[in-house]
Amino acid sequence: MSEFIPPAKPIIGDEEREAVDRVLRSGMVAQGPEVAAFESEFSAHFVQGRPVVAVNSGTSGLHLGLLAAGVGPGDEVIVPSFTFAATGNSVALTGATPVFADIEPETFTLDPAAVAAAITPRTRGILPVHLYGHPARMRELSAIAEKHGVALYEDAAQAHGASLDGTPVGAFGVFAMFSLYPTKNMTSGEGGMVSTATEEIARGVRLLRNQGMERQYENEVIGFNARMTDIHAAIGRVQLTKVDAWTRTRRQNAAFLDANLRGVVVPAVADGAVHVYHQYTVRVPEDRDGFVRALREEHQVGSGVYYPIPNHRLPSLAPFAPGLDLPETERAAGEVVSLPVHPSLSAADLDRIVTAVDAVAGAGS
Questions:
Q1: How many CB atoms lie within 10 A of CB 270?
Q2: What is the set of domains in the chain, with CATH numbers?
Q3: Is 130 helix (H, G, I), strand (E, B) or coil?
């Protein structure tokens, strides 16, 4: 039997282990010089030198970014329902109301027309997700935000290195969050990064991540413990030296799949967009779950369904969206499958994926 091809595979090498050992030997393992260096290097690498603040998770990054931007009770923030629950959760955790809008079918990101229709006098901001590594429609969303006098934020959890019209994701909004979870395009083991448009917002996130203080025992606001450790930052700093090569490989793997897959709808890429393929997500209009099962059981090819239950139908978030109808979100939730695209795939793996997908799609037609 062929070896199983996993849908994702974190890459942790000797350099990362050596970096952790270096920190452990130093005796300084909490937030310290490694975190500061990682923030500076991440800023220069991904977001054109914007202020960047490291935190202990992507979800913390969204939550603290929203709080630092002034979002709170009485406010509404427009978000997609077709995303991981952390996006809507983070809005709700501030005391604000997540308002779910539909997606466009091509890129799975917020539909600007749906966003415009969801604006109310309580709207404080718009929080698009650069889903799967494809940038959201930032031109149109920026225009809507400007027209209505509301803020634009970014969930770039899956989109390290993606860009639109030459501007990197993470450099559009008042703040942006990048996740460093193990399966992301780069990792720190666990963690998140918040890029900010101003030093004022950055300082707000720094205060909130550290019990409300920049100087010990001089607590200025009510805060959290959302710090990144130097151990995690050391891993992230090494990964930062490798992520560009991994992204090139992801894009090459995606190009091979684009050129060879039959029987499924391959991912679209918008004009001016650079897709970094955190996930390579196809549509299977008929019996998606049977397709996934056959790939795994008959061909030993893993895949993932991100996301089978839209946020507005989750028990946790449904109370914010009574009676809401989001047809493109529902259709995507029933059709999407993410195929392996990670940098560890060999040429033989890619051939097997194509053969398996074509065989299963053909059998189902």
A1: 17
A2: 14-100+109-240 (3.40.640.10), 243-303+340-363 (3.90.1150.10)
A3: coil
Residue with tokens 């900010």: 196
CA distance 248 to 344: 12
* Burial of 99 (C-beta count, 10 Å sphere; 0-12/13-18/19+): buried
Task: Round to whole Å and give the CA distance between 182 and 187.
Answer: 5
- What confidence category does residue 364 fall into, taking pLDDT thresholds of 50, 70 and 90? low
pLDDT digits (tens, 9 = 90+) for 322-336: 999 999 999 999 999
Q: Note the pLDDT of residue 1.
A: 66
Mean of per-residue pLDDT scores for the chain: 97
Contacts of 21 (CB under 8 A, 6+ apart): none
Give the pLDDT mean for 228-243: 98
Q: Is 335 helix (H, G, I), strand (E, B) or coil?
A: helix
Phi (first) and psi of residue 79, to 5 degrees = -135, 160
Interaxial angle between packed helices 347-363 and 243-260, expressed in degrees from 0 to 180 and rounded to the nearest 10: 40
Q: Report the DSSP pairing between strands 151-152 and 123-126.
A: parallel
Count Cβ atoms below 10 Å from residue 69 Cβ, excluding itself: 25
pTM of the model: 0.97
Q: In whole angstroms, what is the distance from residue 120 CA to residue 115 CA?
A: 10
Which H/E stretch holds residue 35? Answer: helix 33-46
pLDDT of residue 178: 98
Query: 3-state DSSP call for residue 270?
Result: coil
Strand residue runs (E) in the chain: 52-55, 76-80, 97-101, 123-126, 151-152, 154-155, 163-164, 167-168, 175-179, 192-196, 273-274, 280-283, 336-339
Tens digits of residue pLDDT in 292-312 = 999 999 999 999 999 999 999
Give the residues across from 55 on adjacent strands. 192
